[in-house]
Amino acid sequence: MANLNPYDDFKQRFKLLVSKERHLVVNTLSNIFTMRLIGNKTHGDLAEIGIAEFINQFMYDFKSIHVGKDLFRAKEREEDIVIINELSKAQFPVSLKAYGDGPLQLSTDSDQKMFPYLESQGKDITDRKQIKAIFGSDAFGDFLNVNVMPLIYNEALKQCNIMIFDHAKAVTQTARIIYIGKGESFSGRSQGKGRKHPIYLFLDAQDNYICEVRYGGASANALQRGLWTHTRNALPYFDSITNGWIDYSHNHALVKLFSLALNATAKGHEEANYLLQKDIDRLKLKQ
What we know:
- The chain is α+β, with helices and mostly antiparallel strands.
- Helix content is 36%, strand content 23%.
- The longest helix is centred in the C-terminal third of the chain and has 19 residues, at 266-284.
């Protein structure tokens, strides 16, 4: 445990908590994904404060601070919350993402460095030394340093999962990096139909999909640039810190609570907060 970096230590502790107190994360994730009843993007923003509070309430050696959108935009790194280990005093940023079970953006590559750098390296890269040099380059400097915590959901099945991409494993297992042009595909993966920009695919020794870097030019939007992977196609490169898929249900009382809260006063909110904290305390005691 001592040799783990702070985020890896946190992930192990989170996984241990879920193995012992699964009802806590089931409850919180159900409430977060209930927010999709309010709006398709609402759950992503509320997941940030929901997970930050989950850490504060249930992970006793950790404290979490929601960075906020204004501060987030001013940061050099992608982050939504900051987690502090109150024993070691180590702190680290985490980027929270809520995505459906499919394509997942790991980094926006806001400086647009990755794709142009790969273009300078060739179109079908298989030399192990060259691949190692690519991961060690300045363009890929954040590949191992971005702490992404994806909340993945399958709305049709009402299931969710916190699946974390294993960047270190991706580095060691990448055996081929291949350019796929506009309108092209590779062995049935990343089909080109409807795709307006080229990508670089990262594959293992068996040509299994690991991740991809999408074109990051001026004409590309947020969905067409940066570092991406796919939760189904790259399953061996994910670690579920919820120990697998969780069945969730919508909490319609929570939607009613929001509608009432938006029309209530601060005094009413304070009284409600007191009752909610008492309920959380009961959860901790499994009452």
